[in-house]
Hints:
Blueprint: H1 2-6, H2 8-15, H3 33-37, H4 55-69, H5 71-79, E1 94-99, E2 131-136, E3 142-147, H6 154-161, E4 165-167, E5 172-173, E6 179-180, E7 191-193, H7 194-205, H8 211-218, E8 225-231, H9 233-249, E9 271-277, E10 283-284, H10 285-295, E11 299-304, H11 319-330, H12 336-373, E12 399-400, E13 404-408, H13 433-445
Parallel strand pairs: 3-8, 8-9, 9-11, 11-13
Antiparallel strand pairs: 1-2, 2-3, 4-7, 5-6, 10-12
Amino acid sequence: MYKIIGLLPVIFTIGCAVAEPQLASTSVKSVAPFSQRDLQTPFPSKPTPDGGFSVQEAKQLLEFCIELNNQDDRNKEAAKEIKDSQFNANPGNWQIEYDSRNPVNKQWNMSGGDSANNPKENGIKPFNNAWLLLKNLDAPKQYAIAIRGTVGEKTSILNDALVTTIPADTGINYPRGRHLPIVFAATPYAELHLGFANAAFALLFDKEKGILKQLKEKKLPADAELFITGHSQGAAIATLVHSFLYYALTDSSDRYVLKQHLRTKDVNGIQLKSYVFAQPKPGNLQYAEDFGRIAKDFSYVINNDLDSVPQVPLSLQTPTEAIKSIVHDNTDTGNSLDSIIFKTLNFDIKVIERIKDHLAKVGADRIAKLFEDKQVALDVDYFKGVSIQEQAKAVSLNYTLAGQLIPVFGLKKGGCLYPMPMEEKDELIQHHATSYRKLVVDQIEGAKTPGCTQ
């Protein structure tokens, strides 16, 4: 048995090896693999009552991401008096119900030099995030929450760089030293990216501009369809907001006084559905499994295979995570030698977990101090009288995406769809929301761009 356990990392590596194809005969005609890969596209345009992907929904929600993420680009082009910019969002017949960047704003594609239109200044503390609440005038029961991604401001970039994890149910540390029972997942050992989780917390609980406050003030219909979207960092945060709202709407005590409940087969209520783009990994494997259970066919992740952002944070899984359940199941079983081996492995696992948990607590304390330094004002009255919980250990760095993956396949240097500027560098050409816009239309909707064959 100890030999098998010792060889597990090697076995896992062998399982990932790529085998060379074996041809039965040299006369067999080869088939272009891409033609096989793409047989099932384009996707359907209309979802079913039980969920499902809709390219029209995806396209429209991506426009909301462009409204948020490309404000700095519009500012640059406005200064040059460029019209008909690719950085303008197409809102369709959706109107802005609330804009955290400028609460009195109802206009699309705003630009200018004032702080209300400066992405480096118009965000919510401490990470400078922003969000929109939108309403579909063609379907008055449809609403959307759109969340802004990374902007060129140091605390926004810091949020991406914080790669330790926190528990998905007791990980929020606010005020410093108090672990709030905010639930993003119920599955044991589910953990979240430290930065994304705290950004979601700030957006949800901000006293003036928070999502919870605005949802209650706007009084959505009891049977509303609530879409959630985001691009880049905003995609990871949007996924966590979807998780939070699911558990909030299914909480029988209605802790957050939403006075709403989730739609089920038996009860009419709010239906949550998310489409996110260029999603960095929001949590570990157990979180992704939890999200898969609660979201089912109501959450989609559109990632470009050439985009580097969905590949981070790096998954730093150790062999101890892979064999943990085996060791726990088999400790105190088998013969005396087996028992010694499993007890030794169990000890090693606990040592590694203590190290990871210490690093996670250091990161969480750093975030709590940032909230203090930035004087962030959050509404946590929901937790009055709730005893301080002992924080669960954070022991996993096994990050993965969360939601059903709908891939698009990038073109080298943007090809003829989103070509790089002549003689200029663009490290994020595969990541821009405007690049995703063109890939979605071309590859998912199937509306091939004239003169741009693939």
